Amino acid sequence: MNYLIDFIALALLYAFAFFPRWRKKGWDRLLVNTLMYVYLSAVLFFTLMPVISSLLFVLDHPYTPMNLVPFIDVSLGRGDYLRQIVLNVLLTVPFGFLYPLTRNGAAKCSQTVFFCLLMSLGIELLQPLLSGGRSSDITDLITNGTGGLLGYGLYFLFRPVTDRILNFLRKNQTP
């Protein structure tokens, strides 16, 4: 039920705030921005949800500071560190691919990785507040940045294909 409240809020936000604005900009912008919105909603689901129902309890538990020792789980052989590293990299590959598309291809690699790291930092700082018991880790920030960089590499590699698809959508719009 808690997740349902968040998904309803995200759907309403999309339907009444973003969709009308993006639709006016054309099918290509609508597609790219909608894909980014769906992706960011999935990131919220996996990292922070439930958000709305958690807001009432933000101050009910102590804040656990971020672990600032990079790859400490790897060096100590703790837990399923390899799985966590792979998942954190994969989490932000779509961001690295989609972000330049939302900027009409004008985003540079450094800008893309910067905003990927900014998103990751926001998540890492909010996780201990919204989901008591979850901690934040500098390793997640590093691996998320790596994922954004790999995503940008894929964007650069597939740019001719994405440009062709977006140009097709631009040309075949209804007036």
Summarize this structure briefly:
The protein has 175 residues and is mainly α. It has helices at 2-24, 27-47, 72-76, 81-102, 109-130, 138-171.
Descriptive overview:
The protein has 175 residues and is an all-alpha fold. The protein has one domain (2-171). Helices cover 73% and strands 0% of the residues. It is built from 6 helices and no strands. Helix 1 (2-24) packs antiparallel against helix 2 (27-47), helix 2 (27-47) runs antiparallel to helix 4 (81-102) and helix 4 (81-102) crosses helix 5. The longest helix has 34 residues, at 138-171. It is flat and about 55 Å long.
Distance between the termini: 42 Å
Number of strands: 0
Portion of residues in helices? Answer: over 70%
Shape: flat
Q: Kindly provide the radius of gyration, computed on alpha-carbon positions and rounded to a whole number of angstroms.
A: 18 Å
User: What is the percentage of strand-forming residues?
Assistant: under 5%
H/E series: HHHHHH
| Mean of pLDDT | 92
Q: Strand pairing plus helix content: what structural class?
A: mainly alpha
Largest sheet: none
Count of discrete domains: 1
Number of helices: 6
**Which ranges are low-confidence, i.e. pLDDT below 50, for 5 or more consecutive residues?**
none
Which key terms come to mind for this protein?
175 residues; mainly alpha; 6 helices; 73% helix; 0% strand
Give the topology, please.
Blueprint: H1 2-24, H2 27-47, H3 72-76, H4 81-102, H5 109-130, H6 138-171
Helix pairs in contact: 1-2, 2-4, 4-5, 4-6, 5-6
